[in-house]
Design goal:
heterodimer, A: alpha+beta, Glutaredoxin, 2 domains, 4-stranded mixed sheet, 4 strands, about 55% helix, B: alpha+beta
Chain lengths: ~220, ~230
């Protein structure tokens, strides 16, 4: 046993990617187990590993953690990425939850029917540019600091960075109206742990493709 | 200004209800959204960070995002465990009850036909995925509360979920003796008991009027499909 956290999920982004980002940003190495068949998933359930019969599963510090938010909160708390007091934590939580709503739209996108894809892409663009990005653009402009909360690198910065890159993959010019976010993206890219995560060969997963969608549908088939 | 938290939402359960449950002991004020105008005024005033409700004014903040609000309240009132690991357990358990209540949240907005299907889904998820987990937790440690032998957010959230599922199927706890005992114990905690009495700020099961109000104020949720 390596003592490293062990992540069990499919070999792709999904709900686990934000966890990979956070661990990587915290400088924590981790092992991964990839589910490829329904049988492997059923066995995990049968063996009692999955509290609510769902993945992500992260084995960390003697716990078999499930529920993405619970896992990320724990990691953020453990590695001092959750603010210095209750109020900073509240701000980080608000920002992370907002970004998470946007990320969920992107997460679901590969699974939308072909005739809904264009509409859904339009929704992602609308939400990113009218609801979410303006908030963080304003936050950064108002305090003029490098990081979103408390002048210190936190979970909120990692989550925003992930979201910016994910939206840009779909809409390459999406940051054109957001100069603060452009600077933020550059700054985050040069944080050593994030820089490493963005390099080839890191645990970062590529955008979901047809094979990934197929695997999801196969493994979680009822 | 009373110093109590002030909740901005519709006069109904929705996403605010879990917050009302958690604040029941501390007390709170409410401003109910009834018209599109009120909502637009809130938007223009910049009070809604992501243009959404729930919004709770407390401790000098205008908090949005249900999970963030609940986490803050839980920590402030010592309902979040004694350390990071207890907090992790509470977060996991709350994640489960939240997913379960998520199936019920959009129920009022479904067509009559979809409602019947969804009722079956709710009961199936409750009895095969969620209730067995909490039944086992309580059985295994034999304590009154879910985490750390201490009353926490997880207990409040589970009680809320149990009562909501029972509203859809009154005998749903019949295979779960630990949960029956848990429900009885929780219901007799003075602040919870008071919240369960008529005249409290607890909201009733959402009706057509509630659905109409939400649709009118948000101009959304006209064509909701089951998940």
């Amino acid at each position: 046993m390596s003592g490293k956290p062990r992540l069990t999920y499919l070999n792709g982004r999904g709900w686990m990617e934000s966890i990979r980002w956070l661990l990587a940003a915290a400088g924590v190495e981790f092992d991964e187990v990839y589910l490829e068949t329904k049988e492997e998933y059923d066995k995990l359930i049968k063996d009692g590993f999955l509290l609510f019969q769902q993945v992500p599963l992260v084995e960390i510090d003697g716990m078999k953690m499930v529920q993405t938010r619970a896992i990320m909160s724990y990691i953020a708390g453990k590695y001092n990425l959750h603010g210095k007091d209750l109020k900073e934590r509240a701000l980080i939580d608000m920002y992370v939850e907002g970004i998470s709503d946007l990320m969920q739209m992107i997460l679901m996108f590969p699974f939308s029917p072909p005739d809904a894809k264009e509409k859904n892409l339009e929704s992602i663009k609308e939400r990113a540019t009218n609801r979410y990005f303006p908030v963080f653009e304003k936050v950064l402009k108002q305090h003029g600091q490098d990081f979103l909360v408390g002048n210190k690198f936190s979970w909120a910065d990692v989550q925003l960075m992930e979201a910016i890159l994910a939206v840009e993959e779909k809409l390459p010019t999406v940051l054109s109206g957001f100069p603060q976010l452009q600077v933020f993206k550059t700054k985050m890219s040069s944080v050593p742990t994030i820089k490493k995560f963005l390099q080839p060969g890191s645990p970062r997963k590529p955008p979901p493709d047809a094979h990934y969608v197929e695997t999801v549908l196969k493994v979680f088939k009822k | 200004m009373s110093g109590k938290p002030k909740l901005y939402y519709f006069d109904g359960r929705g996403k605010m209800e879990s917050i009302r449950w958690l604040l029941a002991a501390a007390g709170f004020e409410e401003e109910f959204l009834e018209t599109r105008d009120q909502y637009e005024k809130l938007l223009q005033g910049g009070s809604l960070l992501f243009q959404q409700v729930p919004m709770v004014e407390m401790d000098g903040m205008r908090m949005v995002q249900t999970r963030a609000i609940l986490s803050y309240i839980a920590a402030k009132y010592n309902l979040y465990g004694k350390d990071l690991k207890e907090r992790a357990l509470i977060d996991m358990y709350v994640g489960g009850t939240d997913d379960l209540m998520g199936f019920i949240l959009m129920f009022p907005f479904l067509s009559v036909e979809d409602k019947e299907k969804q009722r079956a889904v709710i009961v199936q998820k409750a009895t095969s995925r969620y209730f067995p987990v909490y039944e086992k937790v309580l059985k295994d440690h034999g304590q009154d509360f879910l985490v750390g032998n201490n009353f926490s957010w997880a207990d409040v959230h589970l009680l809320e979920a149990i009562l909501m599922v029972e509203e859809k199927k009154s005998d749903v706890l019949s295979g779960f003796p630990q949960l029956q005992a848990f429900k009885a114990r929780m219901s007799s905690i003075p602040t919870i008991k008071k919240f369960l009495e008529p005249g409290s700020q607890r909201k009733p099961v959402p009706d057509d009027k509630y659905v109409e109000t939400v649709r009118r104020v948000l101009c959304m949720y006209y064509d909701v499909k089951a998940n």
